[in-house]
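Students often ask what a holo structure prediction actually looks like on paper. The answer is less mysterious than it sounds. You provide the chain, you provide the ligand, and the output is a string of discrete structure tokens encoding the 3D arrangement of the protein together with 6-O-phosphono-beta-D-glucopyranose.
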Amino acid sequence: MVSRIISVEAFDLVVFGGTGDLAHRKLFPALFQRDSDGQFTEPTRIISVARREMSEEKFRESVAVSLRAFVGKDVTASPAFKRFLERIQHVSVDVTGEKGWRELAEKLAGGEERVRAFYLATSPELFGPIAEQLAKHHLVTPKARIIVEKPIGHDGASAAKINDAIGAVFKEPQIFRIDHYLGKETVQNLMALRFANALFEPVWNSAHIDHVQITVAETIGVEKRAEYYDASGALRDMVQNHMLQLLCLVAMEPPSAFAADALRDEKLKVLKALVPITDANASSLTVRGQYRAGAVDGEAVPGYLEELGKKASNTETFVAIKAGVANWRFAGVPFYLRTGKRLPQRVSDIEVAFRPVPHAIFDGGTNTIPANRLVIRLQPDEGIKLWLMIKEPGPGGMRLQHVPLDMSFAEAFTGHVPEAYERLVMDVIRGNQSLFMRRDEVEAAWRWIDPILEAWSRAGEAPRPYIAGTWGPAASIALVERDGRTWNEDLA
Ligand code: BG6
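The corresponding structure tokens follow.
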């Protein structure tokens, strides 16, 4: 099966931070893919904005280098290559000063009727000032929209400030807050699985689900992002946004329609129902870790402090949390979350573990029959596995086996699997906010995260060490095993 391409109307995309890592690693490659699939309508333009002075020619060359690195070496052979580079312009702007704004306005002049999207691939301190400058220079047209990346703030108060500053210029339907996990194919598939199949909904509750596990494991360390990361840590970097969004998609009620606000209303209810973690329970419900030197994929890697170049740091590179959703559907069902850098495998998945059969009719009792599990693999090898018990073939006795019904997306669908950013940027142009976070969602997520950060800070404990290439501190295993459960062992 191959997906259909529906073209989007012509647009001007202005990328602030156009010389930065995100633009070159993710954004330009994603836009190129969409262009080469013929999704753009003429005249579509991409305008890079950065402080650095650079001729348009040099800038296009730098984009070509990034396309070769992140799309593939043979990209130059694609008929879209030249066309894509010709769409790109570059202007040097001092975003907090005066320099360059006139040139930007001149470039945009005449395109007032087109969709105009401002993509802020910059640090969040610049979100407010850039929005203000856009207004001051009369660049905010009725069809303008703004796209902002996480992190939106480092706590609830700073997030509110940033949202106020953007909100002073753009109305909420014009604001697209990216959580790129929502652009991942399998994440959207989770909604298809739950809400386009009648099979799961009746068992999607505490009567049938024993617990849920969400793992987002990375093999990389903090690399060039050490400075940002050290001020952030795994809880802010991964849990406040990506992991809570995944939890919401598992736990939310079916929305009345697949429409932006209906979806976001339901996710918001989940965020508001999260069981608070405070001083009283943080030490039993959370585990923080920090990697030491070790080996990943057979290669020796340095510890976090060595990568950071500091003697000490209290920042966690791993976190495990036993979360809960206090509502009728999920009260009492633990949601175990874990994420970390320098773990043994790059793998993200969601496991819904069902309750065991109530009574065993086969030899050996109920505890010899593993319970059903639904595993949604976000990356790599996207797919869905439903673990069932079957009879082992053969003429002998009634021997049972636990086997997966295995649906691999790579096998079922051919063609290019779009990267999250491909989908998300096209949704911005279409004006579809379903996969973007609304202000109240971001702030509700912080309301749950802030007390955890405060409890950790008051407890003053250092993160637990773990050796790079292992599944985090032993306490993370204990967090789950204390409850008589185990982390998904298919991963290890
Ligand atoms: C980002 C985090 O949001 O997500 C990074 O800031 C992390 O620290 C990345 O590495 C993971 O994204 P993906 O798509 O590679 O799973």
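The chain has two domains: 11-149, 182-481.
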